[in-house]
Amino acid sequence: MTLDRRIAELVAVARSVVTYHGDPAKAAAMDALYAGFVGAGDLAFDIGSHVGDRVASFRRLGATVVALEPQPGPARVIETLFGHDPDVTLLRAACGAAEGSLTLKVNTDNPTVTTASADFIASAAGAGGWEGQVWDQEITVACTTLDRLIEVHGVPAFVKIDVEGFEADVLAGLTRALPALSFEFTTIQREVALACLDRLAELGPYGFDVALGESQQLTFGRFVSKDTMAAHLIGLPHQANSGDVYAVLSRE
Question: Where does the Methyltransferase FkbM domain lie (predicted)?
Fold first, then answer.
């Protein structure tokens, strides 16, 4: 990496820290949302931790956290913020369908959209709202699976998955139903969200809700069927851009 690209990476990571950690109102809204899924003494997995705003929320709620972040810059932020905390385990790895390694396409100027999915990059090309995104670096990183994480760390009460178009691959590495989880969706790749819904339906009787963008506000206020959620995601305008689908296993 050239000096100019290294400086750009540092600036982008610093900008992310301010954006994701600098607003107490956003942090409070996040805590209010996640309190419905995570509590004191629970275990949470944060798959695609970026600069650790969700890690911070889970810790404020009293959960123990396993955080996966394969990008060196954001991982250093998590290490700086939580390296002293024995209840946060940082793994500098990706998560996917199988253990081994994979290649990340790194967006140096915008590390929030680094991805292991070539289809994600192709879908972003020319799409409204995605102008100017350049994936200008590649790194090879270790890859684990949700099943392996569960084997090593235990069964989580909640799993957050935000991996830029690779969400269905992450769920392909899970072979058991979990109490609750979320996965990011984008309107440039609705088919990935539909694949995630199908996979979760294979694993167990899940109900679903969704929060758009960083609103931290659930849309339905109740958990709806897979078909209802799929129709809702298909019907969203392109400008909705992204959000998180929340899935809760029925206790009946």
Answer: 46-180
Question: CA 67, 152, 36, 205 torsion: positive or negative?
Answer: positive
The span from the CA of 169 to the CA of 116, in Å, is 10
User: 210: Cβ–Cβ under 8 A, 6 or more apart, which residues?
Assistant: 185, 218, 219, 220, 229, 232, 233, 243, 244, 245, 246
Residue found by looking up tokens 């296993």 in the block: 249
Q: Is the pTM of this model over 0.85?
A: yes
Cβ atoms within 10 A of the Cβ of 189, count?
23
The per-residue pLDDT for range 103-150, each reduced to its tens digit, is: 999 998 888 899 999 999 999 998 999 999 999 899 999 999 999 999
Strand intervals (E) in 38-87: 43-47, 64-68
pLDDT tens profile 62-88:
999 999 999 999 999 999 999 999 999
What's the Cα-to-Cα distance from 122 to each of 125, 167, 188, 207, 228, rounded to whole Å?
A: 5, 16, 10, 31, 28
